[in-house]
Amino acid sequence: MCPHSSLKQEFLKKWIMGLQRCSFSKKNMSILERKKTIKLSADIAMASARNGTTRWSRALISNASKDGSDNRLVQQILGPESNTPVAAITNKARTRRALVCKKIVKRSRRQIRRRRRKCVAAAPVKAVTSSIAKHLVRKRTQVLKTLIPGGEFMDEICLIEETLDYITSLRVQVDVMRSVASASVRASEP
Amino acid sequence: MNRALPEMLQCSDMTVLQRQRARLKWQTEQLRQQNYFCELSGVFTSQTGFQQGGLMNGAGGGDSVLSNMGMSRQLKPDPGLETAWPELGKINMGFGSCGYGNGPSFDMNHAISRTSSCPPAVAAAVGSKPVEVKGNSEKMGSAVGRESFKKRKVEKLQNSKVVAEDEYKRIKASEEEEEESKITGPNTIKISNNKKQNSGDTSKDNSKVSEVQKPDYIHVRARRGQATDSHSLAERVRREKISERMKYLQDLVPGCNKITGKAGMLDEIINYVQSLQRQVEFLSMKLATVNPSLDFNIDNLYAKEEFPSCTTNFPTVGMAPEMTNHSPFLQFNPIQQVVSGCGVEMGMGMGMNSSDMALRRTISAPVSIPDASFLNTTCFTGPQQQIQPSAPWEVELQNLYNVAFTDTIEASDLEMEM
């Protein structure tokens, strides 16, 4: 679990840094705004802790840098590593094109299969259950793709790998945020 | 190649030997070339005829081999392949080629055919019953059926080794495979790799999927009784990759040990990711309410903190002075003395333990985490908050002392928190 703790430290460092920089710029934000900045800085800190090695982190950063308002925060947190968002965007564009083509091919294949299935008169029970299972799996992968940042452009194998990494970083994020929250609560008490 | 030479020396038939040698030389030369596949089917007929001629010239052993071949329709498992290969080579050396020898010699012919030219002397020997041999080989090929290599040309070509039965079947199947699938580039790579493989790489043969040095291509062997279509093989590789990664996810996501299907696993994963994301939202909301000005001053935050966990590890945030600040707070709790004593290790331990805590919490009570987060967000000033922060620290302290703490402790602490 040693890499875990180092990840936590790095995340916390970047997060607090970003928040401190943010607090200088804006004053008197509403609670929702504050929550949004806190969450955003946490996400970006988490993603930058990966140093662009994973797709979800790159997607997250590029999504954040698209918004003009959030871009400043992104730049602040990323600091000297300003190359990462640019690389992420170009990477995404390339993969997007490839994946769009893949999608078109898949869709056409699916249509062909559907036409074939319609011709088949009686489908055995096994085929029906397997098709149901496949349908379920497909639906759930769609949902998972919406959950993972940048997941729509990944194939299944990459998706699962990214989910693994994303889950570990989310866990780290939750742990650190929880401890900071509890500490700040205790600190705010008289 | 080198192994073939001594075998060749043992062979009595010098003409066959010479032919073998020439063939082998051709083979090694041709291994580098990529257009073998095109010539493959084209030269097939002529080569089989040549092989037949070789058989005729060879000792009567050819016939016996052929008869063996006839009997050797029974499929042998893959593990036999590696051991069989050397024998295959010997026999091939001995007989030049027989109907069965068609297999390995066929591969050699492939190699020869790559250069799109066979030695004219060899070609002259073609003759006797090209059609018959071809028919024979085709029959054998169909009989071989399902054992097949995909992209394992290397192994086939390797051969200077010939073996009886299953080898032949394998080769036949692979011939079919080759004729069906269009493989170009990796052939040469596979061949060179095959040499290494043949030198006793049984594990590779035993495994269903193997990855060669070159990252571009993955060499798969079809299992017995399964389709040898290139598409289905690729799909099988993909499926195995996915299932392998799902296994990792099973370890990571709590409560997935009992679920076996992909759909159920995905469902659990989705729920877990959603719950984690929701937790992040709640915690950020809580932090927003606690800090009206977003001034997360770590110094102030951890002034009252019992554990110098994060502080000692963040020198950049100016945490160094915090170490001295902790001494007045040691009297808060006798446990804290121990905490201060541990110093940096505590911090590391904390980091580990809190993650372990989270893990164990999740394992023991998957539902409890969202509940805990609800507690955090809803009860800002409740007494539960007093209890909740201290309990985990105490538990984590226990972790430090008692490496193997049981889940019961965790459960009891969780109940305390709840």
TrEMBL record, chain A:
InterPro entries in the cross-refs: IBH1-like, IBH1_N
One Pfam family in the UniProt entry: IBH1_N
All copies of domain IBH1-like N-terminal, residue ranges: 5-66
Transmembrane segments: none
Keyword annotations of the record: Transcription, Transcription regulation
PANTHER family listed in its UniProt record: TRANSCRIPTION FACTOR IBH1-LIKE 1
Protein name: IBH1-like N-terminal domain-containing protein
From TrEMBL, chain B:
Biased composition, class Basic and acidic residues, residue ranges: 202-215
Record field: compositional bias (Polar residues): 184-201
Subcellular location: Nucleus
Keyword Lipid metabolism assigned: no
Keywords from the UniProt entry: Nucleus, Transcription, Transcription regulation
Spans annotated as Disordered: 172-215
Domain BHLH positions: 226-276
Record-linked InterPro entries: bHLH_dom, bHLH_ZIP_TF, HLH_DNA-bd_sf
SMART domains in UniProt: HLH
Keyword Nucleus set for record: yes
Record-given protein name: BHLH domain-containing protein
Native source species: Hibiscus sabdariffa (roselle)
